[in-house]
Amino acid sequence: MMVFTLAVVRQGAGDELKSLTLSMRLQESEWEVMRKRVLPGFERQCGCRVKASDIPPEGLAKILEAMARTGRMKIDVFAQDNMRLAELVESRLVQDLSTHERRIPPEVLSSMVEAGRFHGKLYFMPYRPNVQIAYYNGARFRQYGLKPPRSWEELREVARRLKEREGIGRVLFKGWGGTPTSTLLYEWILSAGGDPLSLMHPGTVRTFQFLQELWPDLSPDSRRAKWDTTNQFLAQESVYLAQNWPFGVRLLVKEYGKTEIKTYSGWRGPVREAHVVGGEVLGIPVGAPQTGLALDLIRYMQSREVQETFSSALAWPSIRGDGYGEVEAWMKPHFQAVMEALGHGVFRKNVPYWAEFERIINEAFIRTVVERQSVDEILNVLHKRLEAVKAGS
After folding, report:
1. What are 347-359's pLDDT values in tens digits?
2. What's this model's pTM, rounded to 2 decimal places?
């Protein structure tokens, strides 16, 4: 666990400085903005100092559990991936914040609040949403007289024509495995009207059948594609169309100068357009020493000023409808794509067997799409395995 202390607010002689401990997992560029542009403002406001710790999301529950067991909770507020919340609630490691829901600014999108609600109680507060958008190479699309696809059928046609013209697939599906692949599968299955947690649902079966048909026309880089390599492939122009998180916009367009890269929300399946809302929420552990300050920090993080800083400096989507006022002009079309995607946003179900579900659905992808085994046979076998996992959870 990496720990560092932010700038200390100087007080008068003899005054004792309050301390708040915050846990987050950020990239170094994100920590830079947090340390220099966000948290110092809160320190001045509260007359305190903030100690920040970098804890991996997969390890947070164990650390909180160990602290709770010894009666020495050292974390006041934490940010956590919205797919790793159920274990914190079920283990009774996080405070019920229902009575503080009224403190959420009215400008915060109501859909963002629901991710933190379990069993009718609000345990987590919105802070940082995320949603995947579609990136495409506008110059290449113009060259071949193509329009960005808005449906599965149009996607199939674009993939076919690009491979036909260039002799290699130029449309990417994140097939590296793990969370990058399971996240795309989840929203594609919902787009087909399926249930991602039921592998024999007709919509789920239809999704794997479509991907199996589409796979020969996709880029061979798909097997190496995850959140970071997808940006590399777009920058190198080895692919012309791919889905990825919005952080790639600043990297590709601003830093790499790839102004031909355009974005939009993406495409719909046979039933609807759906995009998984990822990101993080804020929570307060049971036994936190500074619950009051933690609540103040949460509200500060939800303020328009802070949300605009996140959007302008980091290209993060905002939880607020008015959180884009400071976005540079070149970024605004891309944020329009983000807001459109959020308009079709869906939250994944928080289930205790999520890790096993990810392993099973990734196996389904490899065996049916990559290895081209029978969709019906493989999904039937893996459906039974997933149902056994559910029964034992």
Report:
1. 898 888 988 999 9
2. 0.86
